[in-house]
Amino acid sequence: MNSHIRNIIKFAQEINPNIVNFTKIFSFHSKDNCKNKILVLNNLSRKDMYDYINEAIDDGIIGLIITTTININFLKKDIPVFKSKYLNDNLNIFLDYLYNEPLKDKKVIGVTGTDGKTSTCHLIAESLTKLGNKVGLISTEGNGVYPRLKRTGYTTPRSDILYKTFDNFRRKKVDIVVIECSSQGLHQGRLNHLTFNDSIVTNLNKDHIEYHKTFKNYIKSKQKLLDMTMGNIFLNIDCKNTISKFSNIKKSKIITYGSHVDEKIIDRLTKTSDILEDHFVKSNRSLLYKLLINESYSLNKIKFILNNRSKAIRGRMNYFRDRRSNAVYIIDYAHTENALELLLRDIKIKSGKLFLITLFGCGGDRDVSKRSRMGIIAKKYSDKIILTDDNPRNEDSMNIINDIHSKIKDKSNIYIIPNRKKAIKKALSMSTKDAVIIFAGKGNEDNIIYNNKVIVHNDIDYLKKLLK
User: Fold this and answer.
1) Is the pTM of this model over 0.90?
2) Sheet holding 384-387, edge to edge
């Protein structure tokens, strides 16, 4: 135990000399159960800081550990306060001590990238589970021992939630932990001081520029995962950026995969080779082959995995058929220009001369520059477009739609219906036997955000309701 942690523990013992389990005495968020606990706040620089702390005081905290200087006269109640700059960058070291190194002797795999992180995490977790491992998964679509997952609303959770999950994994004797690593989570230090055995970069394109400000900063956040990786780094060479932007990695650590990597070997191992399979399927097969070969699994076991199709992840390439019109509906989370283009291009190739209708929108308070480019992409592949709301947040819904619409030269066959439920109804009314209708952008999200108002809506549930 270093001196910083020793001082924090001493502070806690002075407040409550009878502490037995230190994981029970600390709280890390004012919205959590704070009663009779010490609130730990790191990197707090909010304008409403005192409101935040006083909310926790009302809820019954008995002490405060904070990384910034505060004026105790602004607190509602006189409580013990301990200032520790140490926790700014070392919260995970503290949590690792509290939970007694929950990841010790476990293999940890990190997955990052712009698109496909969640699907890749689930693919790896499912495959390793089939091979007899007990896999702990942390992803957008849920945390838990695969396949029993509980949704949390996070991609990469807060550090305290992560460590509670790691502790649960240890108690359930998990062998391998797979973590979806978002750029924001990496930048905010939620994964600091973790050691990854392997990491995977699915692709690298512009995203979350409103948060990172520049593409360079976005790449730096992803680089943090690679810097914490002790073993191999798997890069998808279908995306040029994954190689060119990470040129400083030791070549000995890089393993490349992609839709055409080891294609002949993989084709020999698989029963069938569907020429209409999209590049994601082929790329994922390549990743599995490389990952499992590297883990010294036999060709027979790899063959077994490659020939057993993975379960569809809710909100990712989910197919539905309308029995009345025989139209096909596809719901996918594609919300970046790269993801949308790959989705529409592959569907257009598969569907041939079939009629393609694309319904989508863009999120508010997010990268404005991508909107018009996504509009141009949708027009390139679609016979009809329905522009609707995604999550307008603090922006005017019609301003976002106008941004998408602005640079499309041919304005014909474009329908503007901001209300997403009405837009989906319109799409169903346009469906015919030869139609493929894409609902892009929201996947399995459960609401639409308008300023401070949250509308309950899930594309999958609503479509199923209408089809019934």
Assistant:
1) no
2) 318-321, 328-332, 435-440, 355-360, 384-387, 414-416
